[in-house]
Specification:
The structure is a single chain. This protein has 246 residues and is α/β, with parallel strands linked by helices. The protein folds into two domains: 138 residues, Rossmann fold; 103 residues, Dihydrodipicolinate Reductase, domain 2 (2-Layer Sandwich), CATH 3.30.360.10. The chain contains seven helices and twelve strands. The strands form two sheets. The protein has a seven-stranded parallel sheet with strand order 3-2-1-4-5-6-12, sandwiched between helices. Strands 8-9-7-10-11 form a five-stranded mixed sheet, covered by helices on one side. α3 links the parallel β5 and β6. The longest helix is centred in the middle third of the chain and has 17 residues. The two termini are 23 Å apart.
Length: 246
């Protein structure tokens, strides 16, 4: 039984993780951290009060809670699955520093399908080259705080890996001609959209579109638990969902 301590336990994703864990004999959510207590699982709002009776931290909270996550992992020498988004460069550096002490898996998207999409986008960008303009459109619900999404940025980075001269452009307005190296990212926020990502490669007389649509947040919870099962057996280092899926 893998004992999970869950940051953001009473949020939308936290509740999905709890529900998925309850359906298995492999996981138990033994505690969590949140402003609002979970109705049936011990919840803390003071990191100093959290005991070390867990095997792995899973985070679906907010970027500003990163110092608390780092402190808890360092205190008890526990691995972490970090699934929150919206980190700045300083915070990403802090995650990298943590991975030198414990095993850390960070991903802007825990979905198996999205991680397949990342590989497909990389291959398409390499095969099609600069002759095909790259545009990314991401859509999420109206409560999502960060834009563009972590997944959209991951997709853009995959393109840049094979197109090193790529320049990221966020939205488009006014009078400015598109450059071949532009990778434009558009963010849509509305309603209850779980998550949609389209990567468009537009060439002369033909268009290639790669898409992923999330129909339920369940897919992210399932992926996070797969990541937790993976990371508890690993030495210190920074891992991704690609390592989990092989």
């Amino acid at each position: 039984m893998i004992r999970v301590f869950l940051f953001g336990i009473n949020g939308k994703m936290g509740r999905f993780v709890c529900e998925q864990a309850e359906k298995t004999d492999e996981f138990e959510v033994v505690g969590g951290f949140d402003r609002v207590p979970h109705p049936s699982i011990t919840t803390y709002n003071d990191i100093a009060a959290v005991p070390g009776d867990f095997d792995v931290v899973v985070d679906f909270s907010r970027a500003e809670l990163l110092p608390s996550i780092i402190a808890l992992c360092e205190k008890y020498n526990k691995p972490a699955v970090i699934a929150s988004t919206g980190y700045d460069d300083k915070q990403l550096a802090a995650i990298a520093a943590l991975s030198e002490k414990v095993a850390v898996l960070r991903s802007g998207n825990m979905s198996v399908g999205v991680n397949l999409l990342l590989d497909l986008v990389e291959k398409a960008a390499k095969t099609l080259g600069y002759a095909f303009d790259a545009e990314i459109i991401e859509k999420h619900h109206n409560q999502k705080a960060d834009a563009p999404s972590g997944t959209a940025l991951m997709l853009a980075e995959k393109i840049k890996e094979v197109r090193p001269e790529a320049e990221f452009v966020y939205g488009r307005h006014g009078e400015s001609k598109r450059k071949p190296e532009d990778v434009t990212i558009h963010a849509v926020r509305g309603g209850t959209i779980v998550g949609e990502h389209d990567v468009i490669f537009a060439g002369e007389d033909e268009i290639v579109t790669l898409s992923h649509v999330a129909l339920s947040r369940k897919i992210f919870a399932v992926g996070a638990l797969k990541a937790a099962a993976f990371i508890v057996t690993k030495e210190c280092g920074l891992y991704s969902m690609k390592n989990v899926l092989g």
